[in-house]
Amino acid sequence: MGSRLLLALDETDPQRAFSVAEAAAPHLAGIKINWPLLMQGGLETVAKLAKLAPVICDLKVADIPNTARLIAEAAYGAGAAGIIAHAFPGAGPLRAIRDVAPDRDLYAVITMSHPGGGEFFDITALAAVARDGGATGVVAPATRPEDITAVREAVGDLKIIAPGIGAQGGDPRAAITAGADLIIVGRAIYQAEDPGAAAREFAAALGD
Ligand code: BMP
Q: pLDDT-based confidence at 207, cuts 50/70/90?
């Protein structure tokens, strides 16, 4: 089986981020980048990292359809294989992103991993938004495997990617058993003394 590990590359020094990515790449299904690295390295970071693994731009887009479209054009145009957007603004902004690149991935956030992160998110309603908006996948928290199971029931065969492993206390195997397709790991890899070995161990923990 291929890797089920996504690296959350929130390392803010672009050079160090690239060397972490290079070391971890053989064990990865993809690299997720978020605002901290994008703000330091700029959009060119996407193209650079895309040479190592598919890049998901975790922009947590939460805006009107026109603005969502403009953001998607920039991110997909830079070489992103996927974008993460919030589901709560409704299906319209998701569809606007999807229309920019129907052949790429779009993940909708259903509920979040931090303490209290589930408080304002209605799993059933937001899963319906994700499906209506044409999302190819969703984000659900490894810190609450029972929520992953509820999300799995609500989204059918959409891909579930699960953050909250390691630094936030979630367990990789529990997330997969609950219904996640891929796990997302950040600090436990990029802050490790040997990020390549840490990535290999997470992949091995899943039997990949
Ligand atoms: P870490 O493994 O260092 O905790 O990183 C988790 C990553 O997943 C971060 O990039 C964070 O923004 C993201 N994330 C999360 O932790 N919880 C969510 O509910 C949604 C996320 O995108």
A: confident
